Structure formats: C-alpha cells, structure tokens
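Contributing new records

If you add data, match the layout below exactly. Sequence lines come first and carry their own label; structure lines follow with theirs. Keep one chain per record. Anything else will be rejected by the validation script.
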Amino acid sequence: EVQIVESGGGLVQAGGSLTLSCAASGSTFDDYTIGWFRQAPGKEREGVSSIHIGRDDTWYANSVKGRFTISSDRAKNTVYLQMNSLTPEDTAVYYCAAEPSAIYVGPDENEYSYWGQGTQVTVSS
C-alpha cells in the first residue's frame, strides 16, 4: 500500500505562483511514476503532468507547458509541481497519483493505482 500526502494548495492571484508537493511512501521510489491531475468544478478530471522518478521522463498537458514544472527529490520521496503564471482556468482540486514499478508516463488515470485526497488551488482574477 502506497500512502500519498499532498500539500501546497491555496489561494493565489492571477499571475502568481504555487508549488504543490506530493510525498509518497515506499522503498522503491525510483521505480515510481507520479502524476498530477486536476478537476475543476463541473469538469472531468484531467492529467496535468507526470514524471518517472528513475528515468526522469516527464509529460505535460499542453495547457500547462511552459508554466508548470514537475520535479522530484528522491531523498524525500517527494514530487513537486511548480506552477507559475497561474490563471483562473487553473482553479481546481489537484490530485497526486502514484504507480510503483511503472513504465508509463502520461495522463491515463487507469495507469495509476494510488491516489491522494486532493488539494484545492484557487486562482482569483
């Protein structure tokens, strides 16, 4: 069982920045793929970004490319999502998901077995 703890959400003005953190339990963190997803009110959940820890392969949704950066700290079993130039359209509950012993890196929710509870990000105009 992999435990996931997200943090870092909050309220920010448009144009501002936030960094989300996702701490995942487990001793084989290098084999994990960690993904960030978000769900805005009235919309389906969508993939935002993902990373394979050991290979450092990354994927970004087109809507966040150039604004968001995903990174990992292996010593802390933690993945970060640095979000810059935020707009009201980025307002959503952000979820972290993990897949141990992973090959896939991308937005398919079915590829991730463990999910966090979500953290709210609100961007005011």
